Amino acid sequence: MLMKKISLLLVGVLALFSCEQEGLDNIMEISDVEQVKTRTAGSIADLDPIIELDGIPVNILNVGNTKRKYLSSEKSGTKLVLNSQDDGSGRQRWKIARQQINAGTAILLEKGNSGIVSNKVAAIFPDPYNYGSLGDNIEKPTNIKLLCMVSGSILPVFNFTPIADNKWLISRGYGSPFSLSTTYLRSKSSTSSDMTFNDDSSTDLSKWQIVPVGEYELVDLEYVRTTVDSFEPTEVICDHDEYTNEHLSVDTWNYSLSTSYTEESNFSKTEGVSVTISGGLSVGIPNVLGDDSSLGVNVSVQQQTNKSWTYGTSDSKTVTKTRTGQIPIQPGETVKLDAVLIMYKGSLTYVATLRKIGDTKTFRVKGKWSGDCFSSFEARTYNPTTGKLVGEYVLE
């Protein structure tokens, strides 16, 4: 009960600084707010798509609204609406900021609302940093509104719950006086500009997509084997030969072995966010040499040096190899030789680092890679009578 009263008091204090229409024309850059500059550590495959977007301008789109999809501020005032497009004003662009103190995610307006910084607030707090944040509407508990927040204040937070097909549910977070029961932000109808909170999460009106603004380029790519990935080696005897030394001295067997194999590569869409990535990006598929004894869970797998594959597409390539070598054969000895092709087949998690074209900020996304990739080409010699392995030679 005490915590609830404290939460109500905090919200009441914040409401005192709610946005006024008679304000300045500018909003501070959210990147200047120190408290939002946080990232989590740990396995790269465990990254949270929402936290990765910290400080990246995004559009927040309603899935079920057929006419007005874009979460938007108005030119001034506190009202939040759904708009039909990103009009370039900044009012449909948001920055997600992870908050440690109340374990949630703040949603901050990039710019475009003339009432964000008010003279009243500036008189109370000298040289303040003020910015717009999504928050509770105390007068209308089923609604949200845009709040003027002063630098250093505790921001209202929301919970992002992932569902299928890169969609999210957005609910009130810790500290909201209305968070005791879970309700979801949604469009009022398939054509309305208004939003409300409702406990029905099944409708598309309660589902949202997070789309980083602009076009991005790939700056790094890693593969990781996670607990849900299956990536195993297969061995195929692709060629064989046999040689008998009928001489009285050691003879040299000059062998020639050939193989042909097909590598395949398939990249899924990124998980959690829908992002536009510039085409024609050349990458390497996973590079695993020999057996998989070192390929444990959460172990990073490097790219092949031959970066002739295109990120984000499905492709296959057939390769033919012929290798020669020499093996000393003792007098009267017969040796059987098998050419063994080792391929890896299955899926890995890929983690791509993206950078907005013309900018320096980066963030990471993940998805699934599946396919077949070459590992090694080996020659193995046997005693044909006993079947005992005599030697192994790596051809490549």
From TrEMBL:
SUPFAM superfamilies in UniProt: Aerolisin/ETX pore-forming domain (SSF56973)
Cited Gene3D superfamilies: Proaerolysin, chain A, domain 3
Top-level taxonomic group: Bacteria
Xref: CDD domains: PFM_aerolysin-like
Name of the featured protein: Uncharacterized protein
Taxonomic placement: Bacteria, Pseudomonadati, Bacteroidota, Bacteroidia, Bacteroidales
Species this chain originates from: Bacteroides uniformis
